[in-house]
Amino acid sequence: LRLDAYNAQSDTELGLLYEATGYPARAEKLLLHAFEIDHSYTPRWSLANFYLRQWNLPAFWQWSRRAAEMPPDDMGALFALCWRVTPDPKAIANAILTDNPSTVRQFIVFMLTKNQVDAAADEAPRLSRIGGAGADRPLLLALVNQAILADDAAAATEVWHALVENRWIVADDSVPNNRDFSRDPLPSGF
Q1: Considering just the CA atoms, what is the radius of gyration of the chain in Å?
Q2: CA within 20 to 30 Å of 174's CA: 34, 80, 94, 132, which one?
Q3: Worst-scoring range by mean pLDDT, 111-115, 131-135, 166-170?
């Protein structure tokens, strides 16, 4: 198994060298071989990068999706590549997001770094369906606050309702919510 990982890394490095010296067909062959040996994130990510540099967008999106199927702890670089191709959050989400909570969570965070509160809010219902309250409630409550700060009541309301519907928070219909403080206040502007 260690030899396979070494061979995949060697093929990836050699493939990048071939590409840099003007042999993209040889590079592609080696990068694909690296993936045959090692199905982890790195060969998928390397292929997505390669196809972007070759401006082969169908292959780029295919390998970006495959990379998103095995999310690392930080997918920011993958989302940044996608953003270079199209700064359209819906297109990126449709092309590569999976129902892996880590992927959706990281996409929401990336959208917030791009000041795309609406796009982050669009994925909140999905995260509240597939994620876990313990891991994801703080992020979604922070998203509610970000939407309020951005003066985006629709996005804040959408995320709030997703939290309520999935019972990640206890809320009522009073305005303001919990006006008599019968429950501990939530860390949110609502």
Answers
A1: 21
A2: 132
A3: 166-170
